[in-house]
Specification:
The complex is a heterodimer of chains A (about 300) and B (about 230).
Chain A: E1 2-5, H1 14-31, E2 38-39, E3 42-43, E4 53-58, E5 64-72, H2 78-81, E6 98-106, H3 108-113, H4 118-137, E7 142-147, H5 149-157, E8 164-172, E9 175-183, H6 186-196, H7 206-221, H8 233-238, H9 245-258, H10 262-279, H11 281-290, H12 297-303
Helix pairs in contact in A: 4-6, 7-10, 9-10, 9-11, 10-11, 10-12
Chain B: H1 15-27, E1 31-38, E2 43-48, H2 52-60, H3 68-71, E3 80-81, H4 89-98, E4 106-113, E5 119-126, H5 130-157, H6 160-165, H7 172-182, H8 187-194, H9 198-211, H10 217-226
Antiparallel strand pairs in B: 1-2, 1-5, 3-4, 4-5
Helix pairs in contact in B: 1-5, 7-9, 7-10, 8-9
The chains are: A alpha+beta (about 300), B alpha+beta (about 230).
């Protein structure tokens, strides 16, 4: 599934963004050998401070498996300010209808370790689709994207060939880089979907993503090496030795107490709701009261 | 889309407000507002079509300080549908009273970022039901992007310093394609001549139009000739 993170909701997704920056460090500094800044094993540049749009692919356990970043070409972006070598001194493309997509990458190692040959290809197509559909819904007609020649071949092989190129191919790190153009038309979207056999909505709703991230944090805190967000998390948690009802209560209370926004509160309440049978319904109400959220109508509705 | 270019509208105080009204008529919105900030000149611009009562109420209560359609929307790269802001307490503060002034809460804000840190936002609103709004938004969203950029560029360009910074910087390819258009060639002809796809020609034309503050290719060619970027054939 694809999650869109931007300046409006990024405060809800910091752990996801950190994972994304770590993936980018492994791919762009490691595999591609680009000259990028790495700090705390994360690759973050000046454009990340400009509230770009992030398209993030996650697996069923909310692990980041792919990501890309979009910027408006009317403002500062990589081709205008950093990748000018590609443009050979020419002025960049600038249009309110065209976004630039950069830092496109897929966690090939994680996906290949699972032994599935199609996983990488599917994740690549899903991410591509995420960019195209997000852009199209935003009234964007075309994407200009900085890629390496391998990615260019991947695009061509997956029914997603660029309709053109801008500038020239230049050496960058261990590879080369070039700027390709992709239209955000229904036809292209249908071709990519057809190739990867992707049907239905690929975007994860913001509320659902927040809740799943909360569950992931909980599973990590309880040291569940292998958990399944789709299954009954409470069974997995309480069947683990060491995670007592007291721990659960304390954790839930902490989450409620730490909640700063309404979305945080709702995520914490949803977690409580999910675990209420294990903790005991009376205790849940007590916890909610303790955290000072007992009087809101919303929490009562959630706990019925 | 049948909008005038702002070049064709004479300079006056009503110029931009009139243009916003034309945007509303063209796209079937009730009201439109543009807000722009230019750190180069340290200036702010606000142009609205809202009724005077609402403007006064908005000013007197300092709603511009909390209005999330301004403060949140500038942090997005995509147009922000106001439904995304519904949970924001400040959104309720602004829009619970807006209804009393005949202003609905279906709307969106289109953010435009400029190359020097200047940014603008075009907000449009319509008092209607959810289904109508959804359909309207889907129909106009691709057309509203260049229009938002057009008004932003013209407002920013009304300042001498910014006008200087925004001198059109066209690439060789963009000039070449405009020159072929001036010579009467079609987009497909040009694609064949340059051995590129017609869609790629369109991308260069979009970029050229944006850089020349034009909404149509004909306007762009006229401007480019006027500025001696290309030559009349």
């Amino acid at each position: 599934m694809i999650i869109i993170v931007d300046g409006l909701n990024k405060h809800l997704f910091q752990p996801l963004l950190d994972d994304m920056f770590r993936l980018r460090a492994r791919v762009f500094a490691g595999r591609l050998g680009w000259d990028v800044n790495i700090k705390n094993e994360m690759e973050i540049d000046q454009f990340d401070a400009m509230d770009p749009g992030y398209i993030i692919g996650v697996d069923e356990n909310m692990n980041v498996i792919s990501c890309a970043r979009v910027l408006q070409t009317t403002g500062p972006h990589m081709l205008s300010d950093v990748f000018d070598a590609i443009l050979c001194g020419e002025a960049p493309v600038r249009s309110a209808s065209i976004w630039e997509s950069t830092r496109f990458c897929v966690d090939t190692k994680r996906l290949q370790d699972r032994g599935s040959k199609t996983a990488v290809s599917r994740a690549t197509s899903e991410l591509m689709l995420g960019i195209l559909e997000y852009a199209q819904e935003s009234g964007i007609t075309d994407i200009i994207t900085v890629i390496d020649p391998i990615m260019d071949r991947v695009l061509k092989r997956s029914n997603n060939a660029p309709h053109g190129y801008v500038g020239q191919t230049v050496p960058m790190g261990k590879v080369k880089a070039l700027a390709a153009l992709l239209d955000c038309t229904d036809e292209r979207i249908a071709r990519v979907r057809d190739f990867a056999d992707i049907k239905g909505d690929i975007f994860m709703d913001e509320d659902e993503a927040v809740l799943k991230l909360e569950k992931r944090a909980y599973a990590q805190e309880m040291s569940l090496a292998d958990f399944n967000l789709a299954g009954d998390l409470s069974d997995q948690i309480t069947s683990k030795p060491g995670a007592s009802t007291g721990d659960l209560q304390q954790y839930c209370l902490d989450q409620l107490a730490k909640a700063e926004t309404e979305a945080d509160v709702n995520a914490a309440l949803a977690l409580l709701d999910m675990l209420k049978e294990k903790i005991g319904a009376d205790d849940v109400e007590k916890l909610v009261r303790l955290a000072g959220h007992g009087s809101t109508p919303r929490s009562e509705a959630r706990l019925v | 889309m049948d909008l005038h270019s702002l070049h064709d509208i004479p300079h006056s105080e009503e110029r931009f407000t009139g243009y916003l009204k034309e945007i509303c008529e063209t796209f079937e919105f009730d009201d439109a507002a543009y807000a722009g900030i230019n750190p180069v000149g340290g200036t702010m611009h606000a142009i609205v079509t809202y009724n005077e009562d609402w403007q006064n109420h908005y000013q007197e209560n300092g709603l511009h300080l909390i209005d999330p359609t301004l403060h949140s929307a500038m942090r997005s790269v995509a147009p922000v549908d106001w439904s995304r802001l519904g949970r924001n307490a400040n959104f309720r503060k602004v829009f619970d009273t807006a209804r009393d002034f005949g202003i609905g809460e279906f709307g969106m804000t289109v953010p435009i970022r400029g190359p020097y840190g200047e940014f603008g936002m075009l907000s449009v609103t319509r008092d209607c039901d959810a289904a109508t709004w959804k359909k309207l938004k889907r129909n106009v969203i691709a057309d509203i992007q260049p229009v938002a950029a057009h008004i932003h560029d013209h407002v920013m360009g009304s300042e001498p310093l910014t006008k200087f910074l925004h001198h059109p910087n066209l690439s060789r390819r963009e000039k070449e394609i405009l020159q072929w258009i001036a010579a009467g060639k079609s987009q497909q002809d040009i694609a064949d001549i340059l051995c590129i796809s017609s869609r790629t020609v369109e991308v260069h034309l979009r970029s050229a139009r944006q850089k020349l503050f034009a909404l149509t290719t004909a306007q762009a060619v006229g401007r480019a000739i006027g500025m001696s970027i290309i030559y009349p054939s």
